[in-house]
Amino acid sequence: MALGLPENVFIANLDKLANWVRANSLWPMPFATACCGIELMAVGASRYDIARFGAEVMRFSPRQCDLMIVAGRIVMKMLPVLQRIWLQMPEPKWCISMGACACSGGVFDTYAVVQGIDRFIPVDLYIPGCPPRPEQLIQAVLDLQEQIKKTGTLTGREFQRRTQLQTPHLRPAAPTDLIVAPGDYSTATLRWPADDKYPVHPSRRLPLLQDN
Amino acid sequence: MIAYHHILETLRRITGCSHLELRTFRDNVRLEVPREYLYPVLQHLKEGFGFDMLIDITAVDYLYYPDARRRFGVIYCLLNTSTGQRLVVKTYLDEPDLHLPSVFPLWKAADWLEREVYDMFGIVFDGHPDLRRILLPESFADYPLRKDYPLRGRGERHNFPTLSRAES
Amino acid sequence: MPLELVETWETTSNQKQYLWTLNFGPQHPATHTTLRLILTLDGEKVVKAVPDIGYLHSGFEKLGEDLNYNQYVTIVDRMNYISPVANEIAWHHVVEKLLGIELTPRCQYIRTILAELARISDHCLNIGTAALDLGAFTPFLYAFYQRELIYDIIQEASGQRFHPSYTRIGGLMYDVRHEWIRKVRAFVQSFPKAHSDIHRLLTRNRIFVQRTKGIGVLPRELAINLGCTGPVARASGVVRDLRKDEPYLAYGELRDTFQVVCATGGDCYARYLVRMEEMLESLKIIRAAIENLPSGPVNIDVETKEVLPPKPETWRTIEGLIQHFELIMTNRGLNTPREEIYGAIESPNGELGFYIVADGSDRPYRCRTRPPSFVHFAVFPYLAVGHQISDMVAILGSLNIIAAELDR
Predict the structure, then answer these.
(1) C139, C203 in Cβ contact below 8 A?
(2) N or C end of chain C: smaller count of CB under 10 Å?
(3) What are C95-122's pLDDT values in tens digits?
């Protein structure tokens, strides 16, 4: 009041104002495919009630949302759909990868399941668990609000820094790249470059991932 | 409740096939049929003995099974809803000629079940109205439940473009 | 995907049909996870519906060939994820049938109670979401609260609220405690009130009745020919329930406590009514089972070398440790007969069966699932024809399609 402003006028940094508004009205787009989707419903239902944190407005149209919650495993046939929906969401947008399957493929280390959606779309927050408890999802939303309040800018400059994927993304595979023998859970699916430690039958040679 | 040996004898007499065999394990009764006689046997089981519900169609790849001589086994689980009697009908196939008659004219339930067997094993059901892949994408090249297909695939699951923040 | 004009306008005026193709899903609020329908529409009327599935195909059956009989229970859990315990019970029921194991009475009763709780929680979710799709939000909240209570009971028994992986070959992970019995009793006391609340909200609700009655009629002959089981078949007048017809677990002893619920309508409303009444019948089974819960061991004798010893024994005694390793180590493990077997239980959704081919090792050579959702979704094109596009969600909701069980 030292400046002599009337009572209902505040002075704020425009970035901070935008962040304050965005953080407290996250509209989730529930991309619920499997078990985690039921826990997502539990979060929306009466006992856990995500409405307390301003994120209860589940919109199934990507145009109206700014937070995508990927709940459940994403398989080969679904991934193009996921990418398309992600592209349809307007900026600013965030993505929570909920559950072990969305984060890393989880127990489903099989031919059809994508081993972590972060290989193919940007992810801001990961929730472990199979499925995560509702409290974990609420905590994730709170963490994301904190993150938005701290780093957000009006024009989305903070996304510039996140342009580069930090995760192992797709790259041309050398002919020597191998698939680990089935049953060997101690190693990751793809190892590059190949070494001589794991002798692999020639029939299990991986074809080229990309032609170049 | 019709005695199983009576079913076997009637089927032998009607189809004229002497290679029908009946095996019992726990409460399961399994009828093994050569593939030429599969459709007549199933038809008679449905129309003559009242096995009016097709519970399941599935297949097994016996590539690495100990002492197995035939590559694929195709299994039909039948149920008689009025008596509660069950019967498993099984037939065998080998690699170059993976064709079986479709049982869609008998049970409409066979529609998707046969499509799934085709999708997973590559067994073709002749006469099926719409034999396409059902669970996997159309562009998928392999038959994943065959034993020579690795659990983690041949790299199909990695073969997608990556979206970065700048592009989205 | 946008609408697309199929027919051209060059046909003569009386043959003129404006058929449109509408893509419905795979990301749509009413498709409950990932289903896709390609509808051909004449105005708002559905002329043809072609389901497209596989958007959640994750290779369960291939994975089953790589895990042993006890490990696969964690994967089976994730199959029908609105009643995971029922899947575990189905899987180990078939494995025990393969190995010829007779369970102890206490284990049978506990499994029966858990299976019935799973049935209640499945039907609660189904009714809640079906009503939600038709515009009624309150029943969903009421029904979901009951599910939370069931989660609490399952968590008390197993330590995990959602995917408990509670069964083992020949028994359970641990025995239940007295607190669990108290919670089940409290649930049996409190559930009828919640049930009657849902009942009063929906059963005579005019909007709900008008949107479900006469919609998606499935005649009895078609239901049999299409292989329907469970509530979908019983709503069409197929009097068949594996709990009565092929009693397993403790259902043989409890067979006088419950009745099979059937209806003759075959429409969405009949399926809703069957599910509502089945919950009460399940409650009767739970009440009878919890009051007659036998004492004694929960696992079969360790000397049979088929069941894992209790964990304290594994940690503290050398015999327990040896017994544990005998089953766990990859070069030992179970001895299975070289045989094939089909077994099934009445899961909340219908007949959930497994076809296991055993090759003598501790891993199934092939473990086929007979998923009720898969068979029921194949019915959808027959039910959809002739109805309005807004009835599609009513039919989908009443069939209770679970995508992970559908695609596996």
Answers:
(1) no
(2) N
(3) 999 998 899 999 999 999 999 999 999 9
List of chain C residues whose C-beta atoms are within 8 Å of the C-beta of residue B25? 337, 339-341
Distances (CA, A) of C168 to B28, B119, B155, C292, C294: 23, 32, 34, 23, 19
Report the domain count for chain C: 2
For chain A, 212 residues long, give each residue's pLDDT as a single digit of tens: 566 788 888 777 888 888 888 888 888 888 888 888 888 888 888 888 888 888 878 888 888 888 899 988 888 888 888 888 888 888 788 899 999 989 888 888 888 888 888 888 888 889 998 889 999 999 999 998 888 888 777 776 666 655 444 444 444 444 444 443 333 333 333 433 344 444 444 444 444 344 33
**CA nearest to C379 within chain B:** B109
**Overall number of domains in chain A:** 2
Confirm or reject contact between C404 and chain A (CB < 8 A).
Answer: yes
Q: Is A57 exposed, middle or buried (0-12, 13-18, 19+ CB in 10 A)?
A: middle
Q: Extract the tokens encoding C176.
A: 């239940």
| B155 DSSP assignment | S
User: How far apart, in whole angstroms, are the C-alpha atoms of residue A187 and residue A170?
Assistant: 18
CB B69 within 8 A of CB B75: no
- Per the CB < 8 A criterion, the answer to whether C178 and C185 are in contact is no
Asked if A104 and A181 sit in the same domain, the reply is: no
- The domain in which residue A154 lies consists of 14-161
CA distance linking residue C34 with residue A73, whole number of Å:
11
B124 has which bridge partners? B99
Contact call for B151 and C62, based on CB within 8 A: yes
A66 inside domain: yes
Domain of residue A67, CATH code: 3.40.50.12280
Report d(CA A28, CA A51) in Å as an integer: 11
All domains in chain B, ordered by first residue: 4-158 (3.30.460.80)
